C-alpha cells in the first residue's frame, strides 16, 4: 500500500471488522436485515472503504459502540464492493444515498438516517 493510500484510504484496504457487525453482501443479506427490523431496531452503516472521512467516521462510531451496549443489530455495507446493494437500500427505504451513512430501520422502514459527522450512537438510542 502506498503512502498516499495509507493517508487517504486505498481502495484495496478493508477495515478490521468488529464482531458486532453483520455484513450485507447480497440481496438475501439485505432482505434478512430488513426482516429483522420487524422484530427489533437495526442500523445499517454504509461505508466507503476508499474514503478517509468515511473511515474516520466508522472508527469513531465503532469506539462508541464498543463502550456501550446498544440494543440494536448493526449491519455493515462496503458500498464500493456492493454499490448495487447500496442503491437498492436507497430505493427500498426511500433514503437519499450518502457516504458514510447510518440508516436506522424499524418495521421495514427507515426511521432516521445520518451522514458524516452526524453519525453517532445517539442516532440509534
Automatic annotation (TrEMBL):
* Taxonomy of the source species: Bacteria, Pseudomonadati, Bacteroidota, Flavobacteriia, Flavobacteriales
Q: Which InterPro entries match?
A: BrxC (IPR022551), Thioredoxin-like_sf (IPR036249)
Supply the name of the protein. Answer: Bacillithiol system redox-active protein YtxJ
Looking up Pfam families in the UniProt record yields: BrxC (PF11009)
Amino acid at each position: 500500500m502506498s503512502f498516499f493510500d495509507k493517508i487517504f484510504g486505498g481502495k484495496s484496504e478493508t477495515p478490521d471488522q468488529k464482531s458486532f457487525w453483520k455484513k450485507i453482501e447480497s440481496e438475501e443479506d439485505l432482505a434478512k436485515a430488513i426482516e429483522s427490523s420487524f422484530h427489533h431496531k437495526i442500523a445499517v452503516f454504509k461505508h466507503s472503504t476508499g474514503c478517509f472521512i468515511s473511515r474516520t467516521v466508522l472508527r469513531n462510531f465503532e469506539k462508541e459502540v464498543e463502550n456501550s451496549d446498544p440494543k440494536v443489530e448493526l449491519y455493515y455495507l462496503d458500498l464500493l464492493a456492493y454499490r448495487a446493494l447500496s442503491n437498492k437500500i436507497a430505493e427500498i427505504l426511500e433514503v437519499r444515498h450518502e457516504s458514510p451513512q447510518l440508516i436506522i430501520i424499524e418495521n421495514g422502514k427507515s426511521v432516521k438516517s445520518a451522514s458524516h459527522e452526524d453519525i453517532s450512537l445517539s442516532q440509534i438510542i
